[in-house]
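User: Predict the structure for this protein chain, please.
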Amino acid sequence: MHRRAFLGTMAASLLAVPLAAQAQQARKVPRIVLVLPPGPEERAFLDGMRELGWVEGQNMTIERKTREGYPGRYDERLEAMLADVVKLNVDVAVGSGHAIAALAKRAPSTMAIVLVGYEDPVGAGLVKSLARPGGNVTGLVTLAPTLDSKRLQLLKEAFPRISRVAYLDHRPNLRPEIEAAAGSLALTLLLVKIDSPEGFEQAFAGIIKQRVDALFVDYAPFFWEQRSVIIEFAARQRLPAIYPFDVYPQSGGLMSYGVKYPQLYRRAATYVDKILKGTKPGDLPIEQPTKFELVINLKTAKAIGLTIPPSLLQRADEVIQ
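Assistant: Here is the predicted structure, written as structure tokens:
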């Protein structure tokens, strides 16, 4: 009886081992939240993860969160979304712009944050340095102040006669470096603060009233989400406009200068892979982009009666006919 009891116990133990291992493995499936709208950036990230052996629904779980669907103004929708993201208790959060930066300031230390294309994480107090971030934040930056100056230069080069430029932003004040860059080009920037879809009508009325010569659109994902509204307004008013992402001219906007965000998101997958394999986010140096692209939609320029200098067209990385 003792021998049979022992063998029975051993058999039960042997059966329990793989079951326990399976349960433990199931619990270890990592959870990632993407704080960005669906589109080419999400697809690029998932492609990058797939190349590294991570497949959604098999060995990782993806949550998706944007401000869309939340009521209220920009800041109210952002706060509600961030509260929900924190409750998810995921392993890694990936995203761009103000939303992911705001999340980095309130996320628990157990949640790794991978910034994609954030402007100045050191100045914002999110990391100690680009080389040694420390804490739970890492990722890729965009060098926004440098890019903003270059975008203004390109806008002025394309349309030398402009002097008054409407700056679309969700923040209440212009950054000093962008004002300085505008001043060096003899441009006056007129801040147009928009923080909700309902704000566009009033903002556009103000732009018309102030008789601006061109539009300069900020990086905020909010504008990215509402790009069709901005592009259609610029076309109606026949205003030259420059944008930060190639998705704008690809959607009918006039021109853009900056990094290709899908490439940044594909690269972000390598950060997530290392984190999921045990590397601390704070030990991963933050990368700076090395390639920037000028995209011009010549079809849009012709449609609204604008002429792009041939010298600028020759330097463009992509011309949409």
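The longest strand covers residues 112-118.
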